[in-house]
Amino acid sequence: APQFAYRGNELYAEDVPLSRLAQEFGTPLYVYSRRALREAWAAYRTAAEGRNVLVCYGMKANSNLGVLNEFKNLGAGFDIVSGGELARVLAIGGDPGKIVFSGVGKQAAEMQAALRAGVKCFNVESEAELQRLSQVAQAEGRVAAVSLRVNPDVDAQTHPYISTGLKQNKFGIAIDIAPRVYRQAAALPGIEVVGADCHIGSQITETGPYLDALDKLLVLIASLAEQGIHIKHLDLGGGLGIRYKDETPLPPKALLDQVFDRLDAQGLGHLQLVLEPGRSMVGNAGVLLTRVEYLKHGEARNFAIVDAAMNDLLRPTLYDAWHGVEPVQPRDGDPAQTYDIVGPICESGDWLARDRRLAIRQGDLLAIMSAGAYGFVMSSQYNTRPRAAEIMVDGDRYHVLRPRETVESLYAGESALPW
Ligand code: LLP
């Protein structure tokens, strides 16, 4: 990630040495680059040049208000999956007309809040949800704009935990029954059919799975049109991968050029294209800074015990995910050894990286790379560990997006029974 690079013997975020941020705010610390956010956004804008594309940032990847506000000001909409995420978008003054609401388990109260806010579209994932949405909308005296999230049964060629477009997944409506459910939707009083939607998985690095899904959706859209159901937009979900190690990410333009070709060929060039990118908007715009507490040289393995843990970054232990580990002030003269980077939590699964060659000493700072997506948002307070602070770097300046939690706040709402 170009916004996190060495200058001399120091790792910087834009024009700020990471060691200065660790000094001022302590560790573990999430550090984001505003410039990297803007570059990620620009890649989508360039790819969409001259076409009707709405980029709805998949905010589950990183929902800090400071990040959301940046994307809002750049013109993004939002893909939300809960009433909580809706509240965040409204809190920054985001345009509800640019919100799509995804998720398999929408509650009636969440539907109600989204209808009142006036979201662009509900991405409906089951017949039961369709029924409930129609009822809630009627009770509100409104009509819910709906896409069906279709499960196209394609293999996204990614980690099984983050692959969502296969038959065995809980997501979406199987493509073979979609025409029937669309007819049902079109007949319901509280529902207006406006789009078609799919999301096949995450960290995808090839166009193949997208194009397979698109082809299936195009067949569906044509058959709907024959039945008089005309949609206005096509939502292809998120899922574009980033480079963690040696992956070759798929640039938005490489995908969209092919998508537009296919739409044009089918005479569907007028459809609005909606995208829901999360990881590719923020993943390489953030690092997790941590300090080495102890080095422990064992017979079988060497451990670097750091002050960040699985509660701060769950991806390694949950998905076996690989994140780069860079010394903030490398010790070029020291001999390197092979370390497992582990946290202080009382679980063997508490590791951040394995088998890394590093020349480090106690007290050194390490940057866990590519931590901007699904990092802080998946953190917990396990072991009564306050969640990390989040900082946004902007050139040679920086802003606290979220202060470190205090220990007292972690148990503030708790109480004991009278004795
Ligand atoms: N739209 C829907 C309906 C989704 O379920 C997701 C992500 C996205 C958009 C954004 O996908 P992205 O562009 O970020 O790939 N925690 C996992 C990733 C889970 C993705 C869940 N859905 C991880 O850390 O790898």
Explain this structure to me?
Its cofactor is pyridoxal 5'-phosphate. One of its GO terms (molecular function) is diaminopimelate decarboxylase activity. With 419 residues, the protein is an alpha/beta fold. The protein folds into two domains: 157 residues, Lyase, Ornithine Decarboxylase, Chain A, domain 1 (Beta Barrel); 173 residues, Alanine racemase (TIM Barrel). It is built from twelve helices and 21 strands. The strands form three sheets. Strands 4, 14, 15, 16, 17, 18, 19, 20 and 21 form a nine-stranded mixed beta sheet that branches. It has an eight-stranded parallel β-barrel with strand order 5-6-7-8-9-11-12-13, surrounded by four helices. Strand 20 and strand 21 form a beta hairpin. Helix 2 packs parallel to helix 3, helix 2 packs parallel to helix 9 and helix 5 packs across helix 6. The protein starts with a strand and ends in a 9-residue tail after the last helix. It binds ligand LLP. Ligand LLP binds next to helix 10 and helix 11.
